[in-house]
Amino acid sequence: MANDAAAASAGADVLTVVAIDGPAGSGKSTIAKLLAERLELDYLDTGAMYRAVTFACLAGGVEPDDGEAVSAIARRIEIELAPDGTVVVDGIDATTQIRGPEVTRAVSAVASHPDVRSELVSRQREWAHRRGGGVLEGRDIGSVVFPDALVKIYLTASPEVRAARRAGEVSDLDYDTIAADIARRDALDSSRSADPLRRADGAVEIDTSFLTIDDVVTLLVERVEAGRSSS
Ligand code: DC
């Protein structure tokens, strides 16, 4: 897959791609959105695409472990991601449901199927090629989707900080439930055989536990500007 990925993403060197990967709660979404604004690039939340497929599976009564059926759905569905964060799946506004507990519980299983991944990876590449680049956020952007990205960032934070951040975002789940869910998803996302979560070769690792969002965004803008002037 890695070789195929590198071949299929050929041309990434002429795109302005910023790849941001990391585990849940590492600050990826907030930071990637602000960075995209600062750089005047479009932003793609690839996790929302895996969540959209999961939503369609649950709505259609498809088991998240059934690789063949899940992959058929991934190939078939239409996913619209609007700049304001609205996610429309086959014409249905799924913005709230894709962040809900049912989708969150099932999404790692859906994302573990290689055929689901290759379908979404090719959509992600197309998205960037249509725009001349963008800020893409996920788990495998720097390792698989765009191994030749201009800048690759791997964000981390301690499990406690990550759980506390998520607890601040949702009102209906307590800290312990969220911490257990994050630990379970970390384990599944890092141990799957297809494109597991890992720091990509050449990625800059930043621990955001004790940094402000502004500090991280400023650091990343500097990295991208340095990357642009040396490319
Ligand atoms: O970033 P998030 O929590 O919304 O992502 C949801 C799930 O999707 C996450 O548990 C792993 C998976 N994912 C992935 O496997 N590859 C990506 N590029 C993005 C997300």
Q: What are the SSEs and their pairings?
A:
Elements: H1 2-8, E1 16-21, H2 28-39, E2 43-45, H3 46-59, H4 67-76, E3 79-81, E4 87-89, E5 92-93, H5 101-111, H6 114-131, E6 133-138, H7 141-145, E7 151-156, H8 159-169, H9 175-191, E8 204-207, H10 213-230
The chain binds 2'-deoxycytidine-5'-monophosphate.
Bound molecules: 2'-deoxycytidine-5'-monophosphate
Contiguous low-pLDDT stretches (5 residues minimum) are 1-8
Number of strands: 8
Order of strands, main sheet, comes to 2-6-1-7-8
How would you sum up the major sheet?
5 strands, parallel
Structural class: alpha/beta
| Helix content range | 40-55%
Key words describing this protein structure:
231 residues; Rossmann fold; five-stranded parallel β-sheet; binds 2'-deoxycytidine-5'-monophosphate
Description:
- With 231 residues, the chain is an alpha/beta fold.
- The protein has one domain: Rossmann fold (3-Layer(aba) Sandwich).
- 53% of the residues lie in helices and 14% in strands.
- It is built from 10 helices and 8 strands.
- The strands form 2 sheets. Strands 2-6-1-7-8 form a 5-stranded parallel β-sheet.
- Strand 4 and strand 5 form a beta hairpin.
- Helix 4 packs parallel to helix 6, helix 5 runs parallel beside helix 9 and helix 8 crosses helix 9.
- The longest helix has 18 residues.
- It is globular, with a radius of gyration of 17 Å.
- The N terminus is likely disordered.
- It binds 2'-deoxycytidine-5'-monophosphate.
- The site of 2'-deoxycytidine-5'-monophosphate has 13 residues, from helix 3, helix 5 and helix 9.
